[in-house]
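Troubleshooting log. The previous structure file for this entry was overwritten by mistake, so regenerating from the original sequence record. Sequence copied from the archived sheet and checked twice against the printout by T.R.
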Amino acid sequence: MDVSAALTFVEEMEQAVMTNDKARVARYLTETVAYTVGARPTLNGIDAVLAAVAEQGTIARWDGHTFVKGWIRDDALVVEVVSHFTRQSDERRISFPCADIYRFQGGRIADWRVYADMSPFHAP
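Regenerated output below.
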């Protein structure tokens, strides 16, 4: 998979995750996908990913990304973005840099790691 195709795949996966459409998400993530956000414990499985994203949505609504750069090597896609959210507590728009690593297995994402300082979710 080239970078452009992998980025399109990830964008489609994110849209499916945001709509909480498990059947659609299963086209993009393996059943045992490992999902790690920062220093939080790794979650496993599609249901865990959907629950974590839904829980995050109660804190901050995801408004999309501004793409910066993407690289692919072997089975891994690395993406640098600026993530945009609206904090639910005060409707304040917040943005911060983020790097995601997606490792593919059998044409789907088997490992998804998110590296971002998400403290603005809880800042005054």
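The chain has a mean pLDDT of 94. Archived copy saved in two places this time.
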